[in-house]
Each structure stands twice: as C-alpha cells, then as structure tokens.
Write a structure and sequence with these properties.
Pathway: Lipid metabolism; fatty acid beta-oxidation
Organism: Salix viminalis
Number of strands: 9
Keywords: Acetylation, Fatty acid metabolism, Isomerase, Lipid metabolism, Peroxisome
Strand content: 5-15%
Distance between the termini: 19 Å
GO cellular component, one term: peroxisome
Structural class: alpha/beta
Shape: globular
Order of helices and strands: EEHEHHEEHEEHHEHEHHHH
InterPro entries: ClpP/crotonase-like_dom_sf (IPR029045), Ech1-like (IPR045002), Enoyl-CoA_hydra/iso (IPR001753), Enoyl-CoA_hydra_C (IPR014748)
Length: about 270
C-alpha cells in the first residue's frame, strides 16, 4: 500500500472486499492541499487495479468530511506572474489537472460510496458529486461555497450537481452559496439517506458496502459503467451501449453461479475481477 501525506487507504476486514479512503488532514478540516490531488488520483487508480477491492468507501478523518480547497493552494494559483496569455494557459492546465483528480472517482471501475459527516464545503461538493452513492450523518452540512470566495466552481460541481438535484436547485445553491443541512440534502436527492449519528453512518455504510461487494463484480462494474455512460447520452445511445456491453459480458461464470445459487437457495460466491 502506498504511503500518502493527505490520505489514509486501508481495509478494515481483509475478506470483505471493502476498502476505505479517508481524507486525512483533520487539523485543517481536511482542506484540499496541492499534495492531495496527485495522491487522490493514485489511490483510485491503485484500487481500480486491485482485485481484492470491490467497493470503496470515501470519508474524512476527524469531525468533518472536507472544508474545501486549502487557501494556500488557491494563493499558489493567484501568484502566477508574467505574460498574461502564458499565465492563463498554465492556469488552464492546472485546473484540468485538478479536475482529472476528482474525475478519478468516476474512472475507477469500482463503486465509490461517500460517507459524509460534518462540513462538506466547496471542493468537498466536487468530490461527493463524483461519487456513486452518498450518505451522511445528521450533523452534516453542505455549501457550494466558491461564489463567496470570488470563484466560479471549476472541479465538477456545476457539471454534476444539476443531474443529481435538478437544474433549478443547483443554480440556487451555487449562486447563494448558502449552507444546507443533511436533511435538506436528502430532500434534494444529494444523499440517499441520513443517519442519526456518525457511528450509525459508519455501521450503515459498512453493511451497504459489504452487500454490494458480495455481488457479481462483473455485474457491479458493468452497472456503474453503463449508468455513467447513459447519464451523458440519449436513451437510444444508452440502450445501444448496454447491448454492446452485455454482448461481451453477459454469458459469464458469474451468471451461472448466480442462477445456481438461486436454485440451491444459497449465497453465491464470485471470483475476483
């Protein structure tokens, strides 16, 4: 396992297939430093290729999920001097690089579950909107904060949030930058469930993650891939994509095992991917 400055990557129960990635700067409320972005990409690429990893749970060490991008990181962009055109071109490359780190969540074939407690602000929203499933504790609060920092959010919130909560809701949240609760996040559809405490969140997500990890890895990774492709396509294009996908993946040992287990009234056992 890699050594990271800004993350913890671990597996609590070796036989479960569930791996954890924790944002790990609790003294800074898990603000996103410059070091975070390359490490985040590496962590997801590594687990994507790890046959023992079936599901990834993403959370934050300490009392908060993420307080957004570190001010020092913002200052490093603002202090670029010299020719305006060349500075702008460098900044665009920097932004694209940071975007790719967040998009690593979607590029990872394994499902990613966000377990959110405390603050989820700015860059934290960028991260959770790229996740496949989101849950939070009752104490969680959210804010699309960039507008209050004199910025246009540029790491994915404005592209992904409308598809999750609706265009009008996303516009209102992004323009006001207002704080909203875990319960409102549930009502908007940003999270699937609100747990009563951090402990209940951890236990609930554990059960859900282990349940997904026990399913056919071909079916799970295929479902994620097809849903993400269909999100950005017409219905006809999405149907064509899943037909092509299943033409190569449908007839598998996993299908045979699932059918046999159902007939024999036992739990199926699937090979690693």
């Amino acid at each position: 396992m890699e050594n990271y400055k800004t993350l913890q990557v671990f597996q609590k129960f070796p036989s479960s297939g569930v791996f954890h990635i924790n944002l790990n700067r609790p003294s800074q409320r898990n603000a996103l430093s410059r070091d975070f972005f390359p490490e985040f990409s590496i962590a997801f690429q590594s687990l994507d290729q790890n046959p023992n990893a079936s599901v990834i749970v993403l959370s934050g060490t300490g009392d908060h999920f993420c307080s957004g991008i570190d001010i020092k990181t913002l200052n490093s962009f603002a202090n670029d001097t010299g020719d305006r055109g060349r500075s702008g071109e460098r900044l665009r490359r920097d932004i694209k690089y940071l975007q790719e780190a967040i998009t690593a969540i979607e590029r990872c074939r394994k499902p990613v579950i966000a377990a959110i407690k405390g603050a989820c602000i700015g860059g934290g929203i960028d991260i959770v909107t790229a996740c496949d499933i989101r849950y939070c504790s009752k104490d969680a609060f959210f804010s699309v904060k960039e507008v209050d920092m004199g910025l246009t959010a540029d790491l994915g919130t404005l592209q992904r949030l409308p598809g999750i909560v609706g265009f009008g809701n996303a516009m209102e949240l992004a323009l006001t930058g207002r704080r909203f609760s875990g319960q409102e996040a549930k009502e908007l559809g940003l999270v699937s469930r609100v747990f009563g405490s951090k402990e209940e969140l951890d236990e609930g997500v554990k059960i859900i993650a282990e349940g997904i990890a026990a399913k056919s890895p071909l079916a799970v990774t295929g479902t994620k891939a097809v849903l993400l492709r269909s999100r950005d396509s017409s219905v006809e294009q999405g149907l064509d994509y899943v037909a092509t996908w299943n033409s190569s993946m449908l007839v598998s040992d996993d299908l045979m095992e699932a059918v046999s287990a159902h007939l024999q009234k036992r739990k199926p056992t699937f090979s690693k991917l």
